[in-house]
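TOKENISE THE FOLD
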Amino acid sequence: MMVEQNKEDDLVGGMITQEVREEAKEALAAVGWAAPSGSEELTSDDPFVRSIDASIQREVGVGLDELLNPAKVVNLERELYSLRSELATITGMEEGFEVAGLSTSECDGGDGGEEADEIRKKIATKETSLDLERRSVFRGWLKNVFLAQAVLSFFLSFIMASDPGLLFGNFGWFNSVYNMDTSIRVLGFWWWWLFIVPSLRSRRPSGAEKKALDIAFLGTPLISLVAPAATKDTVIIWAANLFVVVSSYGYAFLVGDDDDSDDSKKPGWLKFIFKSLDFGTGKERGARL
């Protein structure tokens, strides 16, 4: 009879512990905190990413997309979650202890030996790096720098493609090196793909402009590769690249970007390409982190 009573007490104790754990998880979810989705891909809609975005807005006043390195912030947060979970296990916290939304000290049961000390050092290093990254905001003046860079590259590339002697005629190497004039002319129309479009994309545009620049980034190298088979006039090829960029803007703004939100309608290879183009622009959270 006493054994049965003890089993019943243990069962009740286990139920209470589980209830408390569930209530804690619900409370964290209510304020926006959630654990990362294991080894699955993280997207901007993932609760873990949304919780990071919400906390940055509270602390810094901007969203995750407005940081210089949003992907690095998500990576660091995910690594810290794993390290804190490991620390909680090593230092004797209860099984299944949820560390989401908790500080390192709240996840540390104390002691744990050298292994725990090593994890604490890693956590401290990553927390320092994370604090710096969370406060590194992509300012408006930096966007203007990229825009100025694109404008400068536009005029520079035209001169390179049409008459590079205006820029380099006074240099001895320009006249002495074989075929240098042609090489610079070719570089002039490739400038669209190498500098102009990337500079515009570095401003992290959204909506129709982002779609236009994604198309242009794919279209300009294609034109630069194919057009020389039809003409050797580098000015015409440069103009063809300009036409591609202008047409990309026209198509994106006329058609709109409503279809972009439905990835299910896109073939796998196209989703991979656009996901790759998003790397470094703040949208790469859709990729494996």
Notes: The two ends are 55 Å apart (CA to CA).
